[in-house]
Design a protein that fits this description.
- This is Protein YjdM.
- Belongs to the YjdM family.
- This protein is mostly beta strands.
- The chain has two domains: 38 residues, N-terminal domain of TfIIb (Single Sheet); 54 residues, SH3 Domains (SH3 type barrels), CATH 2.30.30.40.
């Protein structure tokens, strides 16, 4: 059999390698061989002031942000409620009144 570890998300034994990543075909979870569920859970998101952010927090945009395809920018001081933290370059998923669903970078917000 394979010497690959089971999926840390769904515990499937049918994992396979794609380059440096391990992939689960059942739940589509991807992880590195050195990373595990405990390592991924320790990621800490911080705002522009260094305050730790959590899912469900309310944040305030600290400067005007241009939005592609929109006629007006998101103004500094705009409050964003109930954020969701995600992996990636734009690490906050949220909904902004007048703009809809958006992704923001944590470096452009502060915890309200």
């Amino acid at each position: 059999m394979s010497n690959l570890p089971n999926c840390p998300k769904c515990n499937s034994e049918y994992t396979y390698e794609v380059g440096a990543l391990l992939v689960c075909p059942e739940c589509a979870h991807e992880w590195t061989r050195t990373g595990d569920a405990a390592t991924e859970a320790t990621r800490v998101w911080k705002d522009a002031n260094g305050t730790i952010l959590q899912d469900g927090d309310t944040v305030t945009v600290i400067k005007d942000l241009k939005v592609k395809g929109a006629s007006a920018p998101i103004k500094g001081g705009t409050k964003v409620k109930n954020i969701r933290l995600v992996e990636g370059d734009h690490d906050i998923d949220c909904r902004i009144d007048g703009f809809g669903a958006m992704q923001l970078k944590s470096e452009f917000v502060k915890k309200a």
